[in-house]
Structure formats: structure tokens, C-alpha cells
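3.2 Worked example (two chains)
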Amino acid sequence: MMTQPSCAPHVISSRYVMPYEFNVIVDRHRNGDVVITNIKKNTMFTIKSCDTMFHSQRLLQDDCGRPIAMLRAKNMTAHSRWNVFRGQSKADSDMIFSAATNDIIQHRYTHVNISLANKTSGSNDCDFQIKGCWSDRNCTIYMGDSSTTIIAQMHVGQSPEKFMVMIYPDVDYAFVVALIAIVDAINNPGRKEVATNAAANVANGFTTGVATGVAAEIATGVAGVAAQVACGFIFS
């Protein structure tokens, strides 16, 4: 049986909480930015892509362009992991929560676990989960490590680039938007990831080529020495 949250925590801020259920529209632009509006088409948030040379990043801004949270991918991890910080900070002391895929490789099914940074208990259970099919824009956000308490649900919209999210009462909708941004980033890697993969492929090809060339030179040298030894043996 699905239930609504009775006391969902205000993860980012209590300012972003409504006492009633409402829908937001998520519109992904070609430049990678994501704009969130209400049903009256008023802008509520903007998610800007701001990748660096070493990190994939997204900046969550309010309707006036003020930074709310920095979403930053963590490198060198088996699972896709993102850390979220207050404002434009990247300091551990300003971390709000982290999100990581449940499986190393995700195909059609999406499963992301979210853990709050200020967790006081010693439990390793996640605080929230995202489950569903991102390609169909059919994902649900749950509170806790079960699939019973829903805080938000995605709905298919006009296109895969424009869809709706229903946010339940008393839920931090800035937090929900940040989670949508992370899942979008995981499933739509930006230029940084593409460039990194291309560079890795070039490096692997270069390394393989160098290794092959060195091996060929060594083999040629060994064959030459063997031939000289053989000739010396025959004519001695």
C-alpha cells in the first residue's frame, strides 16, 4: 500500500514546502540546461550545466538566478555518485546529501539511493530512493529504503524533454528538483564525460600502439641476434 509522507524532512530548506499537492513542469533545453516551471509557466528553478575539466557539475538556481545548491559528480567510483552542497560551495561541511546508483550498470531501470549528510544514526540504510524507468519518464521518489512512502512522481509529458512531476504535500520541492537533475545528468552525460571517454579511448589506443611497436622491435631484434648466431655457427 502506497502512503504519503507524514513528516518528510526539509532537506534543502523549509521555504520550498507547500501544504498541498502540486505539479511542476521539467523542460530540458538543447544546451543541457533544465528549466522548472509551475502550471502557469512561471519559472521556479533553473539547473545550469557548469562542468569543469575534472568534474561534472550542475548548479540549481532559484527564479532570480540565486544559487541554491551545487550538484557535483564524484570521480573514480564504481557507481555513479553525486554530492550536493549548499549554494556554490564544494566543502564537505556544506554537503547536504549524496546520491548513488544502486547498480554499477543501469539499463532501462533506474535505481538511485540518497543518503543525507547530517544522518545521526549509524544505519547504512538510504534515506530516499528513486525507482522507475527514466527513458519513459516514469520514476517515483520514495522516502526511506522501502517502496511505500511516496514524495514525488514523474509523469510523461509532451516529449521526453518536457514532462511533469507531481510533488506531494509538505515535501521539499527544491530537493525533488535536485534529484531529478541528478538522474537527468546520469542518463544524459555532458561534454565533460564525452570528452573524458574519448580521451581515454585515444590514450588506450596510443598505449596499445606503443606496446605493439615495442614488442615488434624486440621481436625483430631477437630474430636478428638469432640469425647472427646461426650464421656464426655455420661458418665457424
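3.2.1 Second chain
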Amino acid sequence: MDLCHVPAAREKGWYLALMAPNVKGPNYAWLDPSRLYCHPQGLQDCVADLLQPFQGDPIDMVAGIDAMGFILGAATAAALQKGFLAIRKAGHLCVQTLAQPYTDYSGREKVMEVRTDVISPGLRILLVDQWVETGGTMRAAIQLVERLGGVVAGVAAVCIEDSEGGRWIWEHYKCAHCVPPGLQPRFNRHQFGWD
């Protein structure tokens, strides 16, 4: 899809066609959603779709997960006129942090951290990431927020896959994602196509 083209009918998820499949092999994610961030209307509509379920909900801050969640999270925070908190991979923050180990979508053991001087008890935080595949990364972010006394106001991502971890997140938190129900099975099987 042309990065300047805006379709006449902009149904939920129209911008998903802007994403690009993996052409580099198994060491990379199966799909790269970042191209949709280059399309001005696509990015705006993606953020609007993510925020729709949270209309009227109290949200004090948006937190994005390292690294691609920073782009979507910052755009979401700007749309809400709220502050943005970066939840980082360990070793990148030069301030006091709280750390949480987790297993990412590829099965690698990692650690993420968040600064301890921002989240106060009761602060309502919308967690944003680009993609939730197995749920391990998002669950670690949830644990960090809650260990500091914050409240997870919701979880938003371009896609939340129907994995064990994805289902756990849907069952325990208010969620939003951009994939229409008819396309969800394709995304769960990592199949890219619009026919």
C-alpha cells in the first residue's frame, strides 16, 4: 500500500495492510508493523482504534515497552495529552530502577526495568506495546507497574495473539488491539495476507 494513499472507507484495521512480512529469516519477528507508523492517517487511526475501548476511563499516564512500544506508546500519550513512561530493557536507565525477569516471545530470558520515581500508588497506567505474542513481555511490564503500586488501566497493542499469555492478559485486564475478528486467526498462525 502506498504511504500517501488513504482509502475512502477506513474500517478498523485498514492500516494493517501497511505492515511488512519478515524477509530475513527465523531470527526476526514474523511481521514488521513499523511501516504503518510512517503513514500519517494510518498511525492516527491505529491510535484511535486502540483508545476507543478506554473512552471515559481514567488514565493518568501511558507506558510503552522497549523498544517498538515507545513509538506507539508516545503517540497514544500525545493523543490523550498524558505523560509517557518508558519501560526499558535492563541496563539502559541511569537512575534507581525496579527490575523484572521474563521470557520473551523467542524463549530468551531477559530483564526489564522501570524507574522508581514516577509510579505512585494508585496511578492509572495504560500499557502499550507493538505486539503481544506469548504475553511474557507484557506480563513483566504489568508486574513492574503493580509492584510499584500503580494500577494497570488497560493493555493496548497492534495485535494481542490468542496464545496462553495473550488469553491471560485478556482475562485479567481491559484490552484493545487493532486486528478485526475475521483476521485474528491468520495473525495467530502468523499468516500475512488480505484475501
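3.3 Remarks
The first strand starts at residue 20 and ends at 21.
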